[in-house]
Design brief:
Number of strands: 0
Distance between the termini: 196 Å
Helix content: over 70%
Oligomer: single chain
Structural class: mainly alpha
Largest sheet: none
């Protein structure tokens, strides 16, 4: 019995001290768990922020690309509008104007040629008269 009492007391003390270790472990586990959860929350916040920044960069790139595309479309549209539309060109009017110009030049040429021929004819008649007068003996 003597031996039993110290052994019982030791077991009792040991049993009483065990829950304290369990409480300490639970507290440490809780601290570790809350630290782990906080770390997870921090990483989650960082990921969300990174995703948001990436979305903003993508949106900005899309806007820049859209602006460049619209500028190119506008430039192409303007170049297209500046080109001469063949359906608006009056080919018949141009041909008629050219025809009239050629006819006027032909008329002018004919008149000039007629005057030259008339002058040459008169000259030849005068020379023939002179030649005839010379041959007939008339001075």
């Amino acid at each position: 019995m003597r031996l039993l009492f110290p052994l019982s007391l030791s077991l009792f003390l040991f049993a009483c001290s065990e829950p304290q270790k369990a409480d300490t472990q639970t507290t440490e586990q809780a601290d570790y768990s809350s630290s782990f959860e906080q770390d997870i929350e921090d990483r989650k916040a960082q990921l969300e922020q990174s995703i948001q920044e990436a979305e903003e960069r993508v949106a900005k790139k899309i806007e820049e690309s859209k602006a460049k595309f619209e500028e190119k479309v506008e430039s192409a549209q303007q170049a297209f509008e500046e080109q001469i539309d063949l359906s608006q060109v009056d080919f018949e009017g141009g041909i008629d104007a050219s025809k009239e110009s050629i006819e006027k030049n032909l008329e002018k040429g004919e008149k000039w040629l007629e005057k030259e021929l008339k002058g040459s004819e008169d000259e030849l008649k005068d020379k023939l008269k002179k030649l005839d007068n010379l041959l007939s003996g008339k001075d």
